[in-house]
Amino acid sequence: MKIALFATCIVDAMYPRVAQATVQILERLGHEVVFPAGQACCGQMHLNSGYFREALPVVENHVRAFESGFNSGEYDVAVAPSGSCVASVKHQHAMVARWAVERGDKRADATLEARADAVGERTYELSQLLTDVLGVTDAAAQLGSYLPGAITYHPSCHGMRLLRLGDRPLSLLRTVEALNVVALPEADQCCGFGGTFSIKNADVSSAMLADKVENICGTGAGACAGGDVSCLMHIGGGLSREGRTTESGAPVRTVHLAEVLASTRENPLSFDGALALAGGAR
Amino acid sequence: MTAVSLGMPALPPRGFGNISATEPFPKAAHRELGNGQLRANLGHATHTIRDKRLRVVSELPDWEALRDAGSAIKTEAMSRLPELLTQFEEQFTARGGTVHWARDAAEANRIVEGLIRETGSSEVVKVKSMATQEIGLNEYLEERGISAIETDLAELIVQLGHDKPSHILVPAIHKNRTEIRDIFLKEMPGVDRSLTDEPRRLAMAARAHLRRKFLSAKVAISGANFGIAETGTLGVVESEGNGRMCLTLPETLITVMGIEKVLPRAQDLEVFMQLLPRSSTGERMNPYTSLWTGATPGDGPQNVHVVLLDNGRTRALADRHGRGALHCIRCSACMNVCPVYERTGGHAYGSTYPGPIGAILSPLLTGVEAEENSSLPYASSLCGACFDACPVKINIPEILVYLRGEDVEAKHGRGPASSGADGKSNGRRRALPTQMDVALGAASWALSSGDRLGLLEKGLPVARALAGRDGKISRLPGLAAGWTQSRDVPAPPSESFRSWWKKRAAPGEGDGAARGGAE
User: Fold this and answer.
1) What is the CATH number of the domain that holds A216?
2) Nearest Cα to Cα of residue A128 among A270, A3, A271
3) In chain B, at which end, N or C, are there fewer CB atoms within 10 A of the end residue's CB?
4) Residue where a domain stops, chosen among A116, A133, A150
5) Cβ–Cβ of B25/A35 closer than 8 Å?
6) Judged by CB atoms within 8 Å, which residues 124-153 of A form the interface with B?
7) Do A237 and B385 touch (CB under 8 A)?
8) A267 belongs to a structural domain
9) Mutation target vs B (from A34, A56, A186, A203; most B CBs, 10 A cutoff)
10) Largest Cα–Cα distance in chain B?
11) For chain B, first and last CA: distance in Å?
């Protein structure tokens, strides 16, 4: 299968290793990965902050960047290592297109809504693509996934509630060789990121973060995995600020699902040269 | 009200009363977050109700179908509102009741005062009601020498404590039992001085106090959970029996009901009487459900009135993206699951309606362009827990985002589309560009082209150099200072994915993929 990678702006600029890991996983399964060069961002930050006018060109760019490859057969599906960006592509892009038409915005394009829907329908979040389309049921056997240590998992809200990812990410994690997946108490509670909410309502956001950090550290796991680097940057930023460590003194990390799945016996995910996470059951 | 005609009907009047925030949400939240006792009470209470709700909801195999039915009935009622209200008026009047129409809070208060004056009473008992909180009826009557006594236990605590409710369903959620005992000792006439903070003793004290009031009051005031158009029936759902006392003992019964509470048919109650108790108190069945249809000779109140309250509801209904907020049945499930409400409590929202529903309903009632409520739609991380919990499936996150859009438009002097084509007459001064405007404007330019983003990413090594030796950034200026108040930022990578990919794809660059997650 030919798969277009939507890296997302934050992964592209801040966490390239997550996109690299996504490419590795897909190529290991024998698929061809394409990176549409015109892509930039889903526009969610603008949209969720109410800046619809400013979101419009971002959304238009995304649709333009991906639709030609779908139409020409250059690729069959698109994938992004982010639940919230995919939710935005699937649910919000058509909304902005409609909004522009309703407002009589001079940049409005009557065809954009349908085109956005067409792109959205063929765009998948990583765990969704792996499970529903590519038939991955055993990460160790099919991807060679291997990571010694203990990990917990935070299901980000948009993946959980807008995409209904359910237990797909956890099921994948549970089949990684040598990995001990520890349940996160109050897992379904928002970490407090919320895009510009984290700045506009920094106090409330920080209070939510504090509880998430406590729950993560209480598991004793060496890292918290997730499917959205934005939430992970927020959680990781809190863990780092507080200098939280495991019993063995290693910093508690955040790590993307793709990085865990891409980790192998030959080329394991490493932190500062240390190969294993703390609290391992190895 | 008559602006220059643009061929567009003028917007219905905005609502007034206790539906406006008095300070920006972040400021109010900051203060409330500092109250440790409040945080502890709220955390405990919301988690208890949350768990109870989940238990009783999961018992019903057709819960999702019930939610769909509730949503469909509300959508029908809102789309037939004028017709249903007229039908309700005919039926209520035919059965011996009197219907009054109130455009806003002031009109409703005046009508209620007039009706009380006619009876010659200066004391009324009250059933817990959101509509009368919304219009500030108690304060209005108090100023005019009429004392309105709340008979719901928690409302009584709030009233005696000269406080404001902080939750729709459990208004005294922010008080613990020691605080309640102190309020009773200080404010309850004739209270037993040896009162302890044992819940049973507190309840007995309130009961003794309220019994005297029930037996002497000539007038009762209630809200209504439902008004049935088909029969002219009103309904109140409560847990303590105080409502039943108020609705049956006094001679005169005055009900203030928001016009959105009308339901087409008596049969519709079947759906809502399953949805409401499970969503609000986590009970399978509601303890006291009172339904009355006009006046029944020789039985109960003989002088029966209903005040149908608009107060911004027609305006909200005219907003096709926001009108779903009017489907709310005031169960409070959304605030019980909300991580923001859990930490700030209800007072931070300023309005009678707190939590996620308040963050959309208050601005919709006052008009989305009203400056005082403009921070409310941002009081959410958009986690979506409220939408999942809502028994009538109000898409609160979607309406929050829509209202943010309206706020940004209003702030920039663009005005909501519904106010007409000139885009000016929204009553708000055009604000100077904020840091957020500038940042998001620039980001829009950068993020609407792969080439432009790629070019900017060439600066990553410079940004990387800003990080400390420990690979993190702990202090950022301006807007981003809000981020670094509690969070570090990792050092940016030396190369973007885009750039790595380009090199990997170019011939002669070697096998980049084999390098794995290297940077």
Assistant:
1) 3.40.50
2) A3
3) N
4) A133
5) no
6) none
7) no
8) no
9) A203
10) 99
11) 64
**A positions 232-251 inside 8 Å of B (CB):** 233-234, 236-238, 240-241
Q: Which residues of A touch B447 (CB under 8 A)?
A: 9, 40-41, 43, 58, 61
Q: For tokens 């603008």, name the residue.
A: A46
Residues spanned by the domain of A235: 139-262
Burial B462-483 (b: 16+ CB within 10 A, else e): ebbeebeeeebbeebeebeebb
Residues B402 and B502 reside in one and the same domain: no
Express each pLDDT in B245-292 by its tens digit: 999 999 999 999 999 999 999 999 999 999 999 999 999 999 999 999
Residues B163 and B223 in one domain: yes
Tens of pLDDT, residue by residue over B74-107, are: 999 999 999 999 999 999 999 999 999 999 999 9
Residue reference for tokens 């690299």? A20
CB contact A186 to B (< 8 Å): no
Q: Which amino acid is at B324?
A: G
**Nearest-neighbour CA in chain B from A133: distance (Å):** 23
Residues of chain A contacting residue B444, judged by C-beta atoms under 8 Å apart: 46, 51, 54-55, 57-58
How many Å apart are CA A200 and CA A194, to the nearest integer?
Answer: 10
Query: Residue B426, exposed/middle/buried by CB under 10 A (0-12, 13-18, 19+)?
Result: buried
ipTM, two decimals: 0.96
Flag if A188 and B385 touch (Cβ within 8 Å).
yes
Nearest Cα of chain A lies from the Cα of B414 at a distance, in angstroms, of: 10
Please count the structural domains in chain B. Answer: 3
| Closest partner CB to A238 (pick from B436, B453, B486) | B486
- Do A125 and A11 reside in the same domain of the chain? yes
Domain co-membership, A153 together with A253: yes
Q: What is the DSSP letter of B493?
A: P
- Position A183 pLDDT exceeds 80: yes
Residues A14 and A57 in one domain: yes
Last residue of a domain, one of A106, A133, A160: A133
Are residues B218 and B345 located together in one domain of the fold?
A: no
* Whether A82 and A98 share a structural domain: yes
Contact call for residues B237 and B276 (beta carbons, < 8 A): yes
pTM: 0.94
Cβ contact B487–A40 (<8 Å) = no
**Overall domain count for chain A:** 2
Interchain pair A188, B30: CB under 8 A: no
Check pLDDT > 90 for residue B424.
no
Given an 8 Å threshold on Cβ–Cβ distance, is A13 in contact with B457? yes
Sheet order of strands, A253-256 included: A177-182, A146-153, A223-226, A253-256
Q: How many CB pairs under 8 A join A and B?
A: 223
